[in-house]
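Backbone shape codes:
===
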Amino acid sequence: MQIAVDDFGTGYSSLQYLLRFPLDILKMPRAFVEHIDGPRHEQAVGRAILDLATSLRLRVVAEGIERPEQLTRLRELDGARGQGFLLARPLDSPQVAALLARAELDAAACR
């Protein structure tokens, strides 16, 4: 089992959670991902979340990736997994199973 803090940095998610719980994942809200490819001052919070997670050995899931530029910038910052409409629309169980099966076939072909 893994523990994730959803919408880290907004609402009720607090920095105290980083010390209080044995966390594995920080989920970066769309509000911060939205500006990750913008001017440097707009990227600041997203970059800070990635840096903080790295120093605490936590994984980051960036929520709401909708533009290729956002994905490119997150890859450049080296640290986030992602979710969002750019990567896939919401799927039902059979669609997820088919997607995972295709991914396994693709991975096997690359070996």
About this structure: The chain has one domain: 4-110. Residues 70 and 98 are 26 Å apart (CA to CA). The first strand starts at residue 4 and ends at 5.
